[in-house]
Amino acid sequence: MAYRDEKLEEEKVFKDPVHRYVHVRDRVIWDLIGSREFQRLRRVKQLGTTYLTFHGAEHSRFNHSLGVYEIVRRILENFRDREHWNEEERLLCLCAALLHDLGHGPFSHSFEKVFKLDHEDFTQEILLGDTEVNRILTHVEEGFPKKVADVINKTYSDKLVVSLISSQIDADRMDYLQRDAYFTGVSYGHFDMERILRVMRPMEDQVVIKESGMHAVEDYIMSRYQMYWQVYFHPVTRSAEVILSKILHRAKELYQNHYEFKLKPVHFLSFFEGSPTLKEYLALDENVVMYYFQTWMDEDDPILSDLCERFVNRRLFKYIEFNPNLQMNEWRELYELFREADLNPRYYLEVDSSSDLPYDFYRPGEEGERLPIHLLQPNKELKELSRLSDIVESISGKKRTDHKLYFPADELRRMPEDSEVKQRILGILYGKEEQ
Amino acid sequence: MAYRDEKLEEEKVFKDPVHRYVHVRDRVIWDLIGSREFQRLRRVKQLGTTYLTFHGAEHSRFNHSLGVYEIVRRILENFRDREHWNEEERLLCLCAALLHDLGHGPFSHSFEKVFKLDHEDFTQEILLGDTEVNRILTHVEEGFPKKVADVINKTYSDKLVVSLISSQIDADRMDYLQRDAYFTGVSYGHFDMERILRVMRPMEDQVVIKESGMHAVEDYIMSRYQMYWQVYFHPVTRSAEVILSKILHRAKELYQNHYEFKLKPVHFLSFFEGSPTLKEYLALDENVVMYYFQTWMDEDDPILSDLCERFVNRRLFKYIEFNPNLQMNEWRELYELFREADLNPRYYLEVDSSSDLPYDFYRPGEEGERLPIHLLQPNKELKELSRLSDIVESISGKKRTDHKLYFPADELRRMPEDSEVKQRILGILYGKEEQ
Amino acid sequence: MAYRDEKLEEEKVFKDPVHRYVHVRDRVIWDLIGSREFQRLRRVKQLGTTYLTFHGAEHSRFNHSLGVYEIVRRILENFRDREHWNEEERLLCLCAALLHDLGHGPFSHSFEKVFKLDHEDFTQEILLGDTEVNRILTHVEEGFPKKVADVINKTYSDKLVVSLISSQIDADRMDYLQRDAYFTGVSYGHFDMERILRVMRPMEDQVVIKESGMHAVEDYIMSRYQMYWQVYFHPVTRSAEVILSKILHRAKELYQNHYEFKLKPVHFLSFFEGSPTLKEYLALDENVVMYYFQTWMDEDDPILSDLCERFVNRRLFKYIEFNPNLQMNEWRELYELFREADLNPRYYLEVDSSSDLPYDFYRPGEEGERLPIHLLQPNKELKELSRLSDIVESISGKKRTDHKLYFPADELRRMPEDSEVKQRILGILYGKEEQ
Amino acid sequence: MAYRDEKLEEEKVFKDPVHRYVHVRDRVIWDLIGSREFQRLRRVKQLGTTYLTFHGAEHSRFNHSLGVYEIVRRILENFRDREHWNEEERLLCLCAALLHDLGHGPFSHSFEKVFKLDHEDFTQEILLGDTEVNRILTHVEEGFPKKVADVINKTYSDKLVVSLISSQIDADRMDYLQRDAYFTGVSYGHFDMERILRVMRPMEDQVVIKESGMHAVEDYIMSRYQMYWQVYFHPVTRSAEVILSKILHRAKELYQNHYEFKLKPVHFLSFFEGSPTLKEYLALDENVVMYYFQTWMDEDDPILSDLCERFVNRRLFKYIEFNPNLQMNEWRELYELFREADLNPRYYLEVDSSSDLPYDFYRPGEEGERLPIHLLQPNKELKELSRLSDIVESISGKKRTDHKLYFPADELRRMPEDSEVKQRILGILYGKEEQ
């Protein structure tokens, strides 16, 4: 039997707290899960620093990837005998679902910003480069790795296949909303996925939703909205992200200034220099990063060592509402005052802004690649969701941004009570009446 | 206000997926949670290698410790106005609950066996030594750290206090059964804790359960039974433990034989030598261990590098049922054959036996320190649980042991088909009819 | 000890699927639950005809009333030591919570419309009249029944007390959303009540919500929105309500026309005549109504017997979208055609319109009695919810109405295919392209 | 297309709180659900008087019947391509699952005992008699009603089919344990049905369970054990059953003694006379019974009126432990004393004994019709469950009986304090030290 059609003698299952069971029958899927590149995802947390806010959020991208695979598997089971669906694409969809996050590195968000990397590039490299995953996919068919890469890259010709993995209501989002809600323990994030799966219909170039399922979709979109503001953009999590970025910046700067590290940061060198190879990239998982942070707590550079101590022992920065667009002067003044107070403002003062994309996604047209959700009406016509749903309409236009200013409140507290600089800083931060 | 009575201005809560919220009002508790020794528990998994079997089980001991604290907090709220309960002991109980697992190191089970350590000793050292935790507790009262240590050590004079933290139905067990069930996703581990908390009653020297709550307790004990066999003793998890132990053994042996490590295992040296200081012990969390394992994959020693590769990439040993007491001859023969096949049997052949304690606990008398569960009857008499419950009675006598033989099936598969050694090994392992 | 302060020797609990346990310590509450007027609520379904759409929705108002009591009990536990809260009002609140729905009759909605009754009047009568409930309340204190009645009637002087029972986010709504979601099995209706209870704060004349709980309140309002459209206004449920109303109308009409019922409708006579006494009102529960409907299936009047058969055996009317404001001509035409077809349009053709109140409630000012939800900001100022929440703002202005036209599709189907009347009716109902 | 193969154009679903959705594709199933005999099940509670103990247990047999159907549907989906399974039997299984409880009358347990009826006979009559259900089944195939009846009657030739509906681990039990747990809200009743369904395997003459699913089956059996003792045999529920039986006995006795009822009990006459026709049987649902009970509260016979008042207003009998086998003398004495006290002991004194069948079922051989659960071992051999499971073994031998004596404690309380009879009665009931 061809490898692509090979079935396991007995179906294997993974016990999954979100979907109850993840079912695997295909030998290819089984082999991919066993590959070292896929196993590496166990060493990258799904939600980065969120576990410092929600202690349950310690789950890995391995978890999530299995979940996305399982959702696509269930969707395709429903599609089996439907018009527009080409059963030939089944294995391709499953592989793309399973592997779509393969290139994620440690604390992706901060790493990518500081080192100017893109995990999507690495996903492509892993699929197409000299890896176990590539060998397994090539064994299916010459050119199969490229197909998988194209689906994940949204450049595959069959747009229906692409939309299963990346669209406004794809398996990726449906898994992470539920999974992140489960592990954090928040009460948001619930929606009736079973119903959504039942009302999904394949069309020529996209998956659409039967109109009768509109309310379940509304619920899903409200879940996203709540999860973004309650979990993903939580200001405490962002405080940890700020510190994390500062550590990476500082280490890089020290390296560039020929600082002598007590422990040579072997794993980081190529990152500092700007062009890690695939092998170097894969070697740097979150355990390794944490190992360095713990080690750097003993470095002589006071900034690096302090920031690492903060991250490891969770001594985070505090925050206040602060709109940099409106408060330019305060910002400049604070910057100066921090310098006077011997707190390097490049590392100890930061504005972080989070913008709410979730309900802006749903405007067709504007963002080239993002397709709207279409509802299939009883008369077989398609209608864009926000034209039928008041709630979605109401939130789909409004971009919302949250600005926070982060700083080490503990350092300020430690300054002598009669310090004028301290008083002026506190005056700006908290106003007169407080503190 | 005395530090011990200080309350936070506003109650703080942690969102907890198992107990919904963990509530903190006491400044002391808040400070302890923020201490570096307590934060370290985020870097030690609650279930060691179980995440390699149940992918959801990535939660840390930090999680669990907060949960135990919360359960004790709820119990004490019910006890407030009850006879036998001394409200003076409240803070002591809360601290002991929060800190009872403080000394756990990485993958405790294997580490303790290989390096002959005991996490309970380290818990005592952290409480009594030069640590942030000690400073916070001492701030409560001179001698308070010792009290907390005594409660955890079960030597505290007030046995009622001890029994809240360590008994057959203590807060520790109630938390971990539910938490581990939640994160693994298994359907066992559920019992009606709310009801058990409601029927707990303080007595002079122990917590007892009102007889009307007997069925909830039965359910709890059945949960334990199922969790032990379905989760804690899962043979795949034990396969990972076997490999982990072998890695530690091998590294230690190499060190003792003056092997030159490419990367000097600084963090391990004092462990190899047998007497890590508290500081060294605390520095070795699971991130650091994993960092070494990943690095050792590049070591020249083929055994160390192979074992590490197995652990990191989850290439586990396979297993068969094997009773070493009854199958001495097979064991000896296999040992010889492995040697002939150039598979060092000291590292590639292992019997692991797990013994089922859960329902043997409940026999009063035998195990000095373990108290039976007592039911409080309407006539105010106490009766040992198994005398009233058929189900508990039925399982409380029977010790059950499970033996498995672990070996690298992949290595055997790779040997030439016509190898006689291979055939003889397979013959012993699988019998004639299979493979 | 005064009756009002009497506690049960041992707390009693009711196992409740929604709140897990309902706790009773007060003798007064225990006695009220045991009264015959409160037990009667077991014989009135919480959701009327909804069980014909969602088969799980067979729960009674007894269920719900206990739930509202329990929520208020939990709120007051949090209020105990708070400013603005007068512990003297505790028992009053609990009684009002428990008894707020006492006057509900069978299938209240239809009954009240047809017989021009108001269940709120009967609640007042039960509290103040010659009943077991009145005797228990009077035993607490002369004038106590009147106080309870005033709280339920929203005329009590302490507006804070009133707002616990009747406001935009009161215990009543919080219970029924969760309870109705639980029994129907829909995935809407979930919100984080535990958090809402924690952020409720008593003020002089209302309960307010700390701003930090805003997202939980948003979630609650979205739940209401979804429950209204998905469950409460479900068109199939409304079909059953239409038939129910028609039965009552027909029976009353027959009675007024001196029709000779085979079984004299003793229980209904005073309803037909317009002024049931309290005793007569209480005697007519849903079992009795159903008994009559089943009996009336054998009446000679073909309309009464057909409608009863439809209700009892769930042969409901079908429906189409139909806006009576825009489709006056179609309506008139259909009305004529039904008459021609010998289907009495007064009983077999009906437009039902449901208006969505949930998110219109939240506009302060317009509806005198309805207070907006206020958020308590860190600076101690109050702000109306929709001014801080985009989502609530977005739905709070828009009234939405759903119109459906109901008719017996089975009768139409049974008419001869070549009937011109039939063809014309179908033409209007379904247009040309369908059927 | 033949009626038996007809599919609905679009799959219909019922929202079910236990199984989330019940799916219907077959026209035959859809028609059966719509039949009046099946709709009647909405008017018969699943758990009789249990709602007087657990207020959530107001769900009907309609609910449960849909659930059993859904479970069988899922099992058969798994069986589709398996050896031993004959897809021809699919519709038969679904019909038998749906209709297996069709003959249940109001409060079956008491009714059957008092009137010497058997609901299983009526199930057969409904299937084979002049009913809508029979017409639908006959439309499938001449003789099909008989086949369905045989499956339900366990006399059908294909024992595999029978075992799906009636065996130790059949769809019936799996549904009611979960459903009754859900509606009562107890925490027992949970087991991993999804896993059990996955490990079920069809064999020649029975369904067996793969050995790897043994622990899920253990959990299921423990659920049964707990549900029996915590819910089904709850002493308060049995108190209501005792009163119910007494009412029926009294009414029958009065009728036989030519008592003149104010309202002629038309619906009961044939029951009193011992041979209701099918039509009469079907007319007497729980609404009708409750209507009579409420009406009889006004009867002149003091016993009938008192008992009805008790049932309707939940003034139940109290109970004590009482073993009639050991306490013959007390029984005789009480009987005499009640007579002296003018409390007719035939109606006001009753011993109710409940015997625990659940874990006695599992002994093969003894009860002819009950087959043991067989586990399918990896070597393809079958082994009876209790031989592999310690827990099941431990409970499978022990029959447990619970005896309670019921009596109207309120009447005793109302007797003058100095009454000697009262003192003697209380002495026997409560001993000297209490009351």
UniProtKB/TrEMBL annotation, chains A, B, C, D:
Pfam families: HD (PF01966), HD_assoc_2 (PF19276). SUPFAM superfamilies: HD-domain/PDEase-like. It comes from Salimicrobium halophilum. Residues 61-177 form the HD domain. GO terms for biological process: dGTP catabolic process. This is HD domain-containing protein. It comes from the Bacteria. CDD domains: HDc. One of its GO terms (molecular function) is dGTPase activity. Coiled coil: none annotated.
